[in-house]
User: Fold this.
Amino acid sequence: MGDRIRNKIDIGGDNSGKISQTGISITGGVHHGVDAATLATLIDRLRSEVRGQELAKQEVLEDVLDDLAADVRDEAEPVVVRTRWEKVKGLLSGVSQFTELIAKISEHIQKLFG
Assistant:
């Protein structure tokens, strides 16, 4: 029993690197309950709600949302994700039906991509 590790491990905050300790390896990010899969789901929800609407610049909005969804899935550079999201928010400004969903996505992007 002398070889067993008895130290308490406490992990908190943000980590996008690799954590390893005596053969146990954890890769990925710890973001206080926020993950890319949840963000992708929220973006897909917004995409489906936007489709079929008659919004200003509808085609541009759908294209940017498609690109944003791909960026999140492919772990694009944070600046790319943030720039696309700002464009989406600008295109949806003044459309109150998406306000809650926009706030949720903004929170996730902020926590995941800074």
